[in-house]
Amino acid sequence: RSNLDSTCPVLTTFQKECDTPTPFLRNIANAIADDMQAGLAVEGGGDLKMLLTYVDHLPSGNEEGLFYALDLGGTNFRVRSVQLGGMEERVIVDTKSEPVSIPKELKTGTSKELFGFIASKLANFVANENIPARFRLEEGRKREIGFTFSFPVNQTSIDSGTVIQWTKGFKVSGMDGKNVVACLNEAMEAHGLDMQVSALVNDTVGTLAGARYWDEDVMMGVIIGTGTNACYVDQKDAIPKLQSISSSGTTIINTEWGGFSKILPRTIFDQEMDEANTINPGEQLYEKMISGMYLGEIGRRVLLQMCESSHLFGQSVPVNLSTRFALSTKDLCKMQEDKTDDLLIVGSILNEVLEVEANLEARRRVSQVCDTVVKRGGRLAGAGIVAILEKIEKETKRLSSGQRTVVAMDGGLYENHPLYVEYMKEAVFELLDDTFASLIAFKHTKDVSGIGAALLAATNSIY
Ligand code: ADP
Asked: What sequence ranges are listed for the domain Hexokinase N-terminal (predicted)?
């Protein structure tokens, strides 16, 4: 027998507060655009950092030779070697290491420990690789690395920069004001590795650069994984804070859009999650509504409240539901996706994860919670994409002149959850003019950020 109240005020309020009707979404897109402009005007001018990447030349297809890519910035760490075939062949042979999950204690340990760990993995990889004769490096030539480092970095050149702020659960000590590349170089030296970083790039930048190798119309790179971020190609003369450096041609701007924190549809659950279980409360509020690290946890908190005040699963509250991060984003997404009449998948996940038997009414409510979280996330991501597309349009008029414009997308949430993507695209198409919308293509560029980083190492080779 169900003890469920006939109405569920917690759910109704949550749905209402998460709602993002088109006019509100338009306001959000505009607010993001304002913060982009402010961030381009002066360092720290807006919530979006709009970081200079010093990537002024995108891959042309001529790149040739052996380059490496190191990827650090989320759940996993990865090494790869990339053999670039050059203009004639255009073939890329890409050898990847197994993804290594970063031990939790290293995420909040010292820089020495973290970079020592990376260098040791790198040393293993290099020791075991098999390079065809054509790609072997001449005597004395160092192996060059494109280092994908996906945290906000104050970059001072293509191969140097300092961490501005840690995100996504990382907080590494001993790096204040220190060049990230120097930290890695020291660790590599300590491991006797004769390698050097020639390009320090964000994963969004790697994704854009990698995608650009095959498609000239790629103008944006977006990641929706553990965290979220976006970069795009801008005109240098449209970047006031760059004027003292140089002013012609194009460059990539790393927006760090996850930092956007204004007028968002924030609920009590977002606030409580932010305060109780993130290492950067008050920051990255957009990221915390959009990306994989957080969606499950928001859902868990809503369900917990529904149990406590509306007896969602009867009189008792499942023990697991009180455990932080007990509901993964993956499970939340699986429940949202369940379109069976009886919501049997929802039932089995609740059973597995929370050890409850949920009746159909309870399963329906859980499904609505999941849908609300995913929908809000997808639509907010869509608003950010529109803000950037409109900025690109303002500078280039490419859409008005009928030119196709491609957004290269990657990240675990984007990749694995088509309904999130649907909500995201819906929002983009709601906000954009139809003729513009028809010219936008989203391309899932799976795992090209490493290739992009290696390509940028080639473009910026010291030899
Ligand atoms: P990272 O961003 O850490 O480099 P990924 O891009 O692989 O790594 O993203 C991992 C994130 O993707 C996880 O935090 C998880 O929330 C999300 N994710 C992974 N698989 C799924 C899935 N099947 N459904 C929804 N989200 C998923």
From this structure: 12-213
Only one residue has tokens 């159909």, namely 360
b/e for 229-267, b at 16 or more Cβ within 10 A? Answer: bbbbbbebebbeebeeeeeeebbbbbbbbbbbbeebbeb
CATH fold label, 52-221+230-247+447-458: Nucleotidyltransferase; domain 5 (3.30.420)
Per-residue HEC secondary structure of 214-245 comes to HCCCEEEEEEECCCEEEEEEEEHHHCHHHCCC
Give the whole-angstrom CA distance, residue 453 versus residue 111: 22
230: closest CA among 200, 250, 251, 257?
A: 257
**pLDDT band of 2, cuts 50, 70, 90:** very low
**Does ipTM come in above 0.90?**
yes
| Domain ranges, ordered by start, for the chain | 52-221+230-247+447-458
d(CA 190, CA 119): 9
What pLDDT digit, counting tens, does each position of 293-324 carry?
Answer: 999 999 999 999 999 998 999 988 999 999 99
Active site residue 425: no
Secondary structure (DSSP) of 56-83: -S---S--EEEEEEEEESSSEEEEEEEE
Residue 292 CA: nearest ligand 1 atom is 16
Task: Assess whether 203 carries a catalytic annotation.
Answer: yes
Give distance in angstroms: CA of 163 to centre of ligand 1. Answer: 23
Q: Which of 413, 415, 421 has most ligand 1 atoms within 8 Å of its beta carbon, as the pocket-test mutant?
A: 413
Q: pLDDT-based confidence at 87, cuts 50/70/90?
A: confident
Burial string for 440-453 (b: 16+ CB within 10 Å, else e) reads bebbebebbbbbbb
- Do 207 and 452 contact (CB within 8 A), yes or no? yes
Going by their DSSP bridges, the two strands 64-72 and 143-149 should be labelled as parallel
User: In which residue are the tokens 């073939």 written?
Assistant: 91
Spatial CA neighbour of 395 closest among 253, 297, 258: 253
